[in-house]
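As described in the Methods, two query proteins were run sequentially through the folding procedure within a single session, without resetting any intermediate state between them. The first query and its resulting structure tokens are shown here.
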Amino acid sequence: MERVDVKIADRFGTHLSSRSRAAELRAQLELESRPTRTELDFHGVVLVSTSFADELIGVLSQERGLNWLRDHVGVRGASDEVLQVLLEAIAGRTGRAA
């Protein structure tokens, strides 16, 4: 499986709070992740709002399922705080931890 790296801070900034920006990234992931694995690089990201995380990761986990998410999307370089917000978005949509 090929891998695509997405540097979140370079593309979307260091403070992520817009549902529309998250939806844009989610649409890209859904298109690119069919034959590939997308690594979301959160190095340099200071803040991820609950709404951004929900629109990006929460919606993917609900629509595609946790197995698809694990197989096609990776997260690296996230601070503990950012990672916690992402995990809470998954739990909020699926009722279980990732």
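Immediately afterward, the second query was submitted; its sequence and tokens are:
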Amino acid sequence: MRLTTEEASADATLIVVAATDTSIQTVLTVLRYLATDSSRQKKLRDEVNAAFFADEIDIGALCKLSYLDACIQESLRIVPPGPFGTSMIASYNHRYHH
């Protein structure tokens, strides 16, 4: 079965909208948690400032920001984008047993 041009166009539009929605949700989650924790804000700001000296952002340097990646990964763990998974928050000193 082949898609018509109209069907392919509709699918492409849906994919773009879905990707945009999940990306926005992830960015908002990161910002929400950083807004409530000044020490983590500072740690991330220091990492970003150390990586970028000029007005331009180098994609290679961006990919090496390990704390930024950790913030994004943690936000995806806590609030997974989309209708799958559940939110996960561990209390202090909580141990997960499987």
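The first helix runs from residue 5 to 35. We note this only descriptively and draw no conclusion about the first query from it.
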